[in-house]
TrEMBL record:
Per-repeat ranges for TPR: 376-409
InterPro entries in alphabetical order: P-loop_NTPase, TPR-like_helical_dom_sf, TPR_rpt
Sequence segments annotated as region (Disordered): 285-306
Basic and acidic residues bias (residue ranges): 285-296
Keywords, in A-Z order: TPR repeat
Protein's UniProt name: Tetratricopeptide repeat protein
Source superkingdom: Bacteria
Organism per entry: Microvenator marinus
TM regions (residue ranges): none
């Protein structure tokens, strides 16, 4: 069946409409009339042209609609026809010829009995980008293109108009110019009116009755859509609001869709909003209603985020983000308290844009009208942002300011708990434990009490006091769980960490599964990904490395869906760690490097230094010692910059192992001793890391040929449960006693243990001989030092009794106490026994005697020290019989 049409064939390809074309082809087979409706510029004309000339055609073209309808299949573009005239024309044609099939465009349904209405929607984001890039002849960059396309509502006509400007402007510049929308998007196309946007909207709006026009102008207050509840609240003076909204949808001046939580949502087109803003500005009372509604509606949503099905409430907040931001801006000057409340709601959903949220919170903080309670809450939220970005100093400053506001006890307890967390992340474990004690005294809710005990157990584990950690767990058991599933999930995640160090793998996995279950009940995809990571960590610690890799990959894919680059970077590092332990080093190195690049681009320095360490251990195992040293040195610098002393001490210890591998035994001793001193200062002396550091010092001293004994070090770990520290000390002790290293040292999932195992495999199997090779004597003395010979020159002292006696004493000291000197007064008594003169004169005589010896060849052999005079202990002295 050859169609007839009033459209012309297009010279450009149609983009992003394959599904719609196929659907219309199917619909016309089952229906006599298919009416394609949609907002101005959505592409109705382009769609029917493609149908007529490519999919159903080639068509016979005529500009007379009546002649088009005279065929068997009519494809009609009725954009220039009056709606009523079109309806009458189509109805008459169908009545006259029952076999006729018609596809036509219209601004609204024709309301005919045989009609199937097909609503053409804007393009998808991908199709919109493809269309823009194909039509943009001068495009040099796609930066800010997604924002531009969203501002254009993904409408093909507006996209093509914007693309025509790229010979002069970038997408960012075009976006900025849209504050004068109609002028910015004037058409340059031959045969098309320059103000095509205005001219396509004007007749549709002009046809509205006053009540409908009033509602349309008011709904432009909404940003990125609204639901029926919001429409009733903001437009409460309009009793017919639902019916009017339905009419606006029918006329394609509003778009109705089903949102992500399964409810109807309405969107007004930005070009329509711009058109109305020039003629019918939004009344102040409408803006006030809008701000009040979203401030009030955000309260219950914010309070429900941590309950069962919390993800639904989060999704609602995310949908209303644009409206919340508009309400914040409107309220900021007139009602700062309300603005602070809205800022809190936005902060709960804006963690993917932390800088923007932080600016908003700081702006609220500058308002003096905000209550002390709200101010303390804002400061605590600001601190959370700083903790997330590892800026613990700034976090502590914000929390101290919040504490000084002296809020209610429960709020103070939450502030102090954040302080404890910041202290622990900075390596200040004792300060964290003290803060947890303050929380215990202030906390009122079971939720806070449970969370505090879990975090305190975490801190005691960090300190190495496992008994205190177990005591915290016992206290935790007696406090009922709260209905705050997010906090309960956090508690279980803390306990995963605690049980890891307590060596209870079964409890570790159980709490990981409980954390995941709570996250699934909330329905929070991000939290679920974090809990999947915790489960993967549990598998890793149980040495179920393949299961760990599977769980890490599942968590990684979830974070990629969420677009969270920080957690993606963390998961890549963890995945690399699991692969590392499976000795899949090539893939592990690849993921470590990907993780490192993401952390560096995101500025998450605390995690960057962790990945640097892991990458350093891999290079160490591969014996790429230069790369290993570079990674450990960079990690040490970052940890020092961030003030994470425990990490810095660990990296010094790692550098000492690189030193040992390279034969730099003195440097190894120095690095390990400094690590031990730092661990001592941190109060972790009984946790094992200081012990490992001291064991490394002993190995380095042993290799230097100096006295070294590991007995005291071994005594400190006796009776302790086997962990990575005891494994490392045992490995070093086995090497020093020349016993074979154990075949499987990885009783825990420890990269440190792997390094030490590789180290003892590469160190010398026997203690190096540090005895210097025999050499000719630098000084030969006769019996009783009656003469001496140096540099082949002999000197007779038989007639120089005092000098002979002084030299004899220095030679004896060299043999019995090398490095110890004799002062001038002692040498005077030896050289001139029984004589008593002034001390100054005595010193001058000794000086004269030493000067004489030096002038006779002993200048470089006789030294002056704090003790007095001595012969260099490095000099070899021999007693000769012959002159």
């Amino acid at each position: 069946m050859k169609p007839s049409t009033n459209t012309n064939p297009e010279r450009t390809s149609i983009i992003g409409r394959e599904t719609e074309l196929t659907l219309v082809e199917q619909l016309i087979k089952a229906n006599s009339l298919v009416t394609i409706i949609g907002p101005p510029g959505v592409g109705k004309t382009r769609l029917v042209s493609e149908l007529a000339h490519a999919r159903l055609g080639p068509a016979e073209t005529t500009k007379d609609p009546e002649l088009v309808l005279a065929g068997e299949l009519a494809v009609l573009d009725a954009s220039d026809l009056d709606h009523n005239q079109l309806a009458e024309l189509v109805d008459n044609a169908l009545n006259a010829r029952p076999t006729l099939k018609i596809i036509t465009t219209a601004s609204q349904p024709l309301e005919l009995a045989s009609e199937y209405v097909f609503a053409l929607k804007p393009l998808s984001a991908d199709a919109a980008a493809e269309l823009f890039e194909q039509r943009a002849s001068g495009l040099k960059t796609t930066a800010h293109l997604p924002e531009l396309l969203a501002e254009l509502d993904h409408l093909p006509r507006e996209i093509e108009l914007a693309a025509s400007k790229t010979d002069l402007m970038t997408p960012a510049e075009i976006l900025k110019s849209l504050d004068r929308r109609f002028e910015a998007l004037e058409s340059r196309r031959r045969g098309q009116a320059p103000d095509i946007l205005r001219s396509s909207i004007q007749p549709l709006v002009s046809a509205l009755d006053p009540a409908t026009m009033h509602v349309l102008s008011q709904v432009t207050v909404f940003v990125n859509g609204f639901d029926l509840e919001a429409a009733h609240a903001v437009l409460h003076s309009e009793k017919r609001t639902p019916q009017i909204l339905s009419e606006l949808v029918r006329r394609s001046l509003l778009i109705k869709e089903v949102d992500t939580i399964g409810e109807s949502r309405f969107y007004s087109l930005k070009s329509v909003q711009y058109y109305l803003s020039q003629t019918r500005p939004i009344p102040p009372e409408t803006r006030e209603n809008h701000a009040h509604h979203y401030a009030e509606s955000s309260k219950p949503l914010l309070g429900s985020l941590n309950q069962t099905n919390g993800s639904r409430h989060a999704a609602r907040l995310i949908l209303e983000r644009g409206n919340l931001e508009a309400a914040f801006d409107y309220s900021f000057d007139s009602q700062p308290g309300r603005a602070a409340q809205i800022a809190a709601a936005l902060d709960a959903i804006s963690r993917l844009e932390p800088e923007r949220s932080l600016r908003r919170l700081n702006a609220c903080l500058a308002k003096t009208e905000i209550s002390l309670t709200a101010r303390a809450d804002i400061l605590a939220r600001i601190a959370d942002h700083y903790i997330d970005s590892s800026d613990f100093g700034a976090a502590m400053d914000a929390l101290e300011r919040a504490w000084q506001l002296d809020p209610l006890d429960e709020q103070k307890a939450w502030i102090k708990l954040r302080m404890a967390n910041a202290h622990r992340l900075r390596g200040e474990v004792m300060a964290a434990i003290e803060a947890h004690g303050v929380v215990r005294a202030l906390a009122e809710s079971n939720k806070l009490k449970r969370l505090n005990w879990a975090h305190e157990a975490n801190a005691w584990v960090d300190l190495g006091d496992f008994e205190q950690a177990r005591s915290c767990l016992r206290e935790l058991q007696f406090i009922p769980e709260s209905d705050d599933l997010r906090r309960e999930s956090e508690i279980h995640r803390r306990l995963v960490y605690v049980h890891f160090y307590l060596g209870n793998r079964q409890e570790q996995r159980r709490h990981a599964e409980l954390a995941l279950k709570a996250a699934e009940e909330i329905g929070d995809l991000r939290l679920k990904a974090i809990c999947l990571q915790g489960l993967a960590d549990a598998e890793l610690s149980a040495k179920n490395y393949e299961a760990a890799v599977h769980a890490y990959r599942a968590a990684l894919e979830t974070h990629r869906i969420l677009g969270n680059r920080t957690f993606e970077a963390m998961l890549l590092g963890n995945l690399a760690g699991a692969l590392h332990r499976l000795d899949e080093r090539r893939e592990a190195r690849k993921h470590y490097q990907e993780s490192l690049a993401l952390h560096r681009s995101g500025g998450t320095k605390a995690w960057e230094n962790v990945v640097l360490f892991a990458l350093g251990t891999l290079e160490f195992e591969e014996e790429n010692l230069g790369d290993a040293r570079a990674h450990f040195t960079a990690a040490l610098a970052l940890a020092t910059e961030l003030g994470i002393e425990s990490d810095a001490a660990g990296y010094l210890l790692s550098l000492s192992w690189v030193d040992l591998m390279e034969g730099r035994f003195a440097s190894a001793s120095k690095h390990a001793a400094e690590a031990a001193a730092r661990f001592e200062r941190l109060g972790t002396s009984d946790f094992g890391w200081k012990v490992v550091s001291l064991a490394t010092v002993s190995v380095a001293e042993y290799l230097r040929g100096l006295p070294a004994n590991l007995k005291g070090v071994i005594a400190e770990i006796e009776g302790r449960p086997e962990d990575s520290q005891t494994v490392m000390v045992t490995l070093l002790n086995e090497w020093m006693h020349q016993r074979p290293a154990v075949s499987n040292p990885f009783t825990v999932s420890s990269l440190h243990a792997r390094m030490v195992y590789r180290l003892v495999q590469r160190l010398p199997t026997t203690r190096p001989d540090t005895t210097p090779p025999p050499r000719d004597a630098e000084l030969v003395v006769g019996p009783d030092c009656e003469w001496f010979r140096c540099a082949d020159e002999s000197v007779d002292l038989r007639r120089r009794k005092s000098i002979k006696l002084i030299l004899k004493h220095l030679v004896e000291l060299h043999a019995s106490k090398p490095g110890v000197g004799a002062d001038a007064h002692a040498l005077f008594d030896i050289g001139w026994p029984g004589q008593e003169i002034e001390p100054e004169d005595a010193a001058r005589r000794v000086y004269w005697a030493i000067r004489t010896l030096r002038k006779n060849g002993l200048d470089e052999l006789i030294l002056t020290s704090d003790d007095g005079y001595l012969i260099d202990s490095k000099i070899r002295i021999e007693v000769g019989d012959e002159w």
